[in-house]
Design brief:
108 residues, 5-stranded mixed β-sheet, alpha+beta, binds FE2/S2 (inorganic) cluster, Ubiquitin-like (UB roll)
Length: 108
């Protein structure tokens, strides 16, 4: 079993659950883009643009610690939250199973 579940909270508060593969080396950003979510990802996943910003609504405790580079980029945003992450820095892996995220973008 290599699929995990990713829950995406829509702007209206409803939640969609997606099945995500962990064996393709995808980041959460690439996966969400592939599912037609509106993420610019201008930097292509280099932690340099912050347009892939998501708020982790549940499951933040399961994720790897945020890196200094990731935090520094998020810290430039007007809409940063306590549980903000760059989705390009999160690889689809078992620890992401059943997390819930809300797509935030760069808030500009
Ligand atoms: S895609 Fe640019 S920071 Fe994630």
């Amino acid at each position: 079993m290599t699929d995990i579940k990713i829950n995406v909270q829509n702007p209206d508060g409803s939640i969609i659950t997606l099945e995500a593969p962990t064996d393709m080396g995808l980041s959460l950003m690439e996966f969400l883009k592939g599912n037609e979510y509106d993420i610019l990802a201008t930097c292509g996943g280099m932690a340099l643009c912050a347009t892939c910003h998501v708020q982790v609504i549940s499951g933040i405790e399961k994720l790897k610690e945020i890196s200094d580079d990731e935090f520094a980029m998020l810290d430039t945003l007007p809409n940063i939250t306590e549980t903000s992450r760059l989705s390009c820095q999160l690889k689809l892996a078992n620890e992401l199973d059943n997390i819930t995220v809300k797509i935030m973008g760069d808030g500009l």
